[in-house]
Amino acid sequence: MIEAREALEASAARRIVRDSRTAAVLPDLDRQLAEMRAHVASGDVRRFVAADDAFHAAVVDHAGNALVADFYARLRDHQQRLRHHLLAVRAGDLAGSLDDHERLRSALGASDDVAYAAVLGEHVARYRGAL
């Protein structure tokens, strides 16, 4: 399941870059990053996971394919519950996860979909086997 989400999101990032939609998605990503920083500082895992989820969903949604966005959302529901439990147990991973998201935003901000996919792969590897 996690590999399917990774593939869909990497494809969405490619489409955003290809279609010059980067400027449209960055404010959403910046908003989620601000929330994530606050939740790392407070240790609020539940809200961190919600902002994490919204970050990734924003990338898929801004790619402009409603069918893919719907499928991604279906995968997301199950995985979000598992991710919440994992981060509750491994709360120290919040800062590392935040760093991954900062790097994802930087890659997309540079319109570098190849770097985005590479960072996304590292981010997913952080949870592979646990989810």
UniProtKB/TrEMBL annotation:
<feature type="domain" description="GntR C-terminal">
    <location>
        <begin position="1"/>
        <end position="126"/>
    </location>
</feature>
<dbReference type="InterPro" id="IPR011711">
    <property type="entry name" value="GntR_C"/>
</dbReference>
<keyword id="KW-0804">Transcription</keyword>
<keyword id="KW-0238">DNA-binding</keyword>
<keyword id="KW-0805">Transcription regulation</keyword>
<protein>
    <recommendedName>
        <fullName>GntR C-terminal domain-containing protein</fullName>
    </recommendedName>
</protein>
<dbReference type="Pfam" id="PF07729">
    <property type="entry name" value="FCD"/>
</dbReference>
<dbReference type="InterPro" id="IPR008920">
    <property type="entry name" value="TF_FadR/GntR_C"/>
</dbReference>
